[in-house]
C-alpha cells in the first residue's frame, strides 16, 4: 500500500516549495480565456431549492468556534432549514461584485485561494423532514440541491470509513471533494496543497455553523477512497473525495444500501481545455487508503507534538472570558468576511490577538485528533504592531496560553519578503505562520498524514479569519517562501514545514 511509502509525500512537499527561482523565473501565465468555471454544473438535473429564509441564531462567532451552543430548542436531527443554514454559511454565495471587463464574480462564505472555489459538497442523507433519502450535490450558484441517487446510501460511506463511530448514527454525511483543474489552472502542481487549505477554511465555517445550530458534528479523514469516489461517480483523474463530515445523531443506518451503479448524468465542461499535473494525481493516489480495514487501522491520535520548554521571555495572553466575548453573530461575521487588501498602521490589542490564537486552537472534532488538546501544527508569529507586545518573532504555547519571544526586533521587511514579497504581510499587525514537523506525522499516518497536516492548518486559518472579523478587523491568507520561513524561525522551527500563512490587522480606509 503506497500510503506507507512516506518518501512520496515528503518528495511532493519538497518539489512544490516556493523559492525565488520558482516564483520569479517561472514562465507560467494565466490563460484568462481558458479559466475554469467555479461551479460544478449538472445541466439535466432538476434543482431542489433550499429555503431562502435562514435561521438567525445570534450566536457569537467566537463562541461558535469553540463548542456547540447548548439549547433545548434544537434537536440532533437536522431539518431542511438546518442544512440550508450550514451549507450557506460553509459554501454559499455571500457577495456578488461586477468588474469591468470581467463580469460578475460570486464570492463564497469561506476564503479560497485565488477565489477559484474548487471544493464541492455532496450529501448522503436518510429521510429528513422536507428532504427524502438520497445522494445530493449542493449548487452554490443557485442555492439548490440536485439529487444524484435516490435512497439511503449512508451505509456505503460508513463502511468505507471502517465504521467510524462518529458516522454510525449521523442522519447526514457531508462529502467534500476537490476538482483539481479549478485551482491548478493558476497554481499548477502546488494546487494539491490548496485542496486542503481551502477545504479547511470551508470546514472552519461548517463546524462553527453546526455548533451554532447545536448539531453534533465530526470530521472524518480516514476512509477507503475508491468506494466514496464511486458513490459520487467521480472521474478521479479530475475530481476526488477529500473528507467526510457526520452531521447530527440518533439515526440508525439501513440494513443495506441500494446498488452503486455508474450515474448516467452529464456534467458541464469547466473550460475549453484542461491541463493535467501528474504530481497532484500521484500524491493523491499515494495518500489513498485501499480498504475499510485500512481506514479503521489508520484512525487514531496524532503523534504528540509538544513544544520544547520555553527559553525566551513569556507573555501571557489575555483572551476575553466567555461571557464578555465580542457579540458579533456568526451569520453576520461570515457575510461580512472578505480578504483584506490593504492594512492600516492601527495596532491590535493583546486581547484581540489572544482571542484569535486561543479560539482558533480549540479542539477540532476529527478522527486524526482523537485525544483532547491534540494538534499537528504549531503557530509562529511575526508581531509588527500589537499593544502590550514588543515587536518580534514568537511561538504560541497553547497549553498555558503564552507567547514565547524568540527574537525581538522590527521584522516588517522580513515578513513581507517571506510572503513572496507581498506588502500585506509587512503592513499587517501580525503575520501568523502555521508550521508542522511533518516527519513524525507521516510516520504515524503515512502519506495521508500530509493531508491531515494541511487540512488542520486550513481549519486553523479559517478560524483565524472568523476570529478577526468577529472583532472588527481583517485578515488575508498569503503564500510564502517555504524554506525561508523555516530558516527565519530557526533554530526553534528547525525541521518544520510551513503549512499556512495569514496576516491580521485593521483594514486601511478607502479614499
Give a quick precis of the structure:
With 511 residues, the chain is an alpha+beta fold.
Write up what this structure looks like.
With 511 residues, the protein is α+β, with helices and mostly antiparallel strands. Helices cover 31% and strands 20% of the residues. The protein has 17 helices and 18 strands. The protein has helices at residues 7-15, 20-24, 61-64, 80-91, 154-160, 181-187, 191-212, 225-232, 278-286, 292-298, 330-336, 350-360, 412-418, 423-427, 438-445, 448-470, 482-489, and strands at 48-49, 93-99, 103-108, 119-125, 134-139, 144-150, 172-179, 217-220, 239-247, 314-316, 348-349, 377-383, 386-387, 392-397, 402-408, 430-436, 474-478, 497-505. The strands form 4 sheets. Strands 1-6-5-4-7-9-8 form a 7-stranded antiparallel sheet, with helices on both faces. Helix 15 (438-445) packs across helix 16 (448-470). The chain is globular. 52% of the residues are buried. The model has no long low-confidence stretch (mean pLDDT 94).
| Helical stretch tally | 17
Strand content: 15-25%
Structural class label? alpha+beta
DSSP E strands, number: 18
> Order of strands across the widest beta sheet?
1-6-5-4-7-9-8
Oligomer: single chain
Biggest sheet: strands, sense, closure?
7 strands, antiparallel
Amino acid at each position: 500500500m503506497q500510503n506507507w511509502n512516506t518518501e512520496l509525500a515528503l518528495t511532493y512537499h519538497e518539489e512544490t516549495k516556493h523559492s525565488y527561482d520558482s516564483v520569479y523565473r517561472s514562465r507560467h501565465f494565466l490563460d484568462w480565456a481558458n479559466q475554469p468555471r467555479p461551479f460544478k454544473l449538472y445541466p439535466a438535473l432538476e434543482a431542489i431549492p433550499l429555503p431562502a429564509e435562514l435561521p438567525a441564531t445570534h450566536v457569537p462567532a467566537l463562541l461558535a468556534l469553540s463548542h456547540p451552543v447548548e439549547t433545548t430548542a434544537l434537536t440532533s436531527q437536522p431539518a431542511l432549514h438546518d442544512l440550508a443554514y450550514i451549507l450557506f454559511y460553509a459554501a454559499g454565495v455571500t457577495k456578488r461584485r461586477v468588474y469591468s471587463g470581467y463580469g460578475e464574480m460570486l464570492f463564497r462564505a469561506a476564503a479560497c485561494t485565488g477565489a477559484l472555489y474548487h471544493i464541492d459538497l455532496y450529501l448522503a442523507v436518510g429521510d429528513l423532514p422536507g428532504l427524502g433519502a438520497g445522494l445530493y450535490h449542493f449548487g452554490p450558484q443557485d442555492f439548490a440541491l440536485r439529487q444524484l441517487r435516490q435512497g439511503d446510501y449512508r451505509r456505503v460511506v460508513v463502511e468505507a470509513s471502517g465504521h467510524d463511530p462518529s458516522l454510525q448514527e449521523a442522519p447526514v454525511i457531508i462529502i467534500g471533494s476537490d476538482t483539481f483543474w479549478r485551482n491548478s489552472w493558476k497554481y499548477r502542481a502546488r494546487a494539491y496543497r490548496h485542496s486542503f487549505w481551502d477545504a479547511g477554511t470551508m470546514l472552519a465555517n461548517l463546524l462553527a455553523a453546526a455548533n451554532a445550530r447545536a448539531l453534533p458534528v465530526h470530521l472524518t479523514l480516514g476512509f477507503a477512497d475508491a468506494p466514496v469516489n464511486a458513490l459520487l461517480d467521480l472521474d478521479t483523474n479530475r475530481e476526488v473525495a477529500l473528507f467526510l463530515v457526520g452531521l447530527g445523531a440518533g439515526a440508525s443506518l439501513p440494513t443495506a444500501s441500494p446498488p452503486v451503479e455508474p450515474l448516467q448524468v452529464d456534467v458541464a465542461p469547466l473550460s475549453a481545455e484542461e491541463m493535467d499535473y501528474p504530481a497532484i494525481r500521484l500524491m493523491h493516489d499515494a495518500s489513498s487508503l485501499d480498504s475499510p480495514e485500512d481506514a479503521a487501522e489508520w484512525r487514531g491520535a496524532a503523534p504528540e507534538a509538544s513544544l520544547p520548554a520555553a527559553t525566551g521571555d513569556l507573555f501571557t495572553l489575555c483572551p476575553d472570558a466567555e461571557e464578555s466575548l465580542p457579540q458579533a453573530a456568526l451569520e453576520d461575521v461570515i457575510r461580512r468576511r472578505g480578504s483584506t487588501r490593504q492594512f492600516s498602521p492601527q495596532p491590535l490589542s493583546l486581547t484581540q490577538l489572544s482571542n484569535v490564537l486561543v479560539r482558533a486552537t480549540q479542539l477540532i472534532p476529527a478522527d486524526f485528533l482523537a485525544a483532547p488538546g491534540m494538534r499537528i501544527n504549531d503557530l509562529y508569529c511575526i508581531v509588527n504592531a500589537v499593544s502590550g507586545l514588543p515587536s518580534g518573532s514568537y511561538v504560541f504555547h497553547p497549553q498555558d496560553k503564552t507567547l514565547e519571544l524568540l527574537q525581538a526586533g522590527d521584522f516588517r521587511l522580513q515578513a513581507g519578503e517571506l510572503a513572496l514579497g507581498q506588502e500585506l504581510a509587512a503592513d499587517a499587525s501580525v503575520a501568523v505562520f502555521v508550521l508542522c514537523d511533518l516527519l513524525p506525522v507521516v510516520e504515524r499516518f503515512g502519506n495521508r498524514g500530509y493531508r491531515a497536516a494541511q487540512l488542520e492548518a486550513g481549519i486553523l486559518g479559517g478560524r483565524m479569519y472568523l476570529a478577526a472579523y468577529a472583532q472588527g478587523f481583517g485578515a488575508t491568507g498569503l503564500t510564502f517562501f517555504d524554506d525561508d520561513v523555516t530558516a527565519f524561525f530557526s533554530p526553534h522551527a528547525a525541521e518544520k514545514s510551513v503549512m499556512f500563512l495569514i496576516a491580521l490587522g485593521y483594514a486601511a480606509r478607502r479614499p
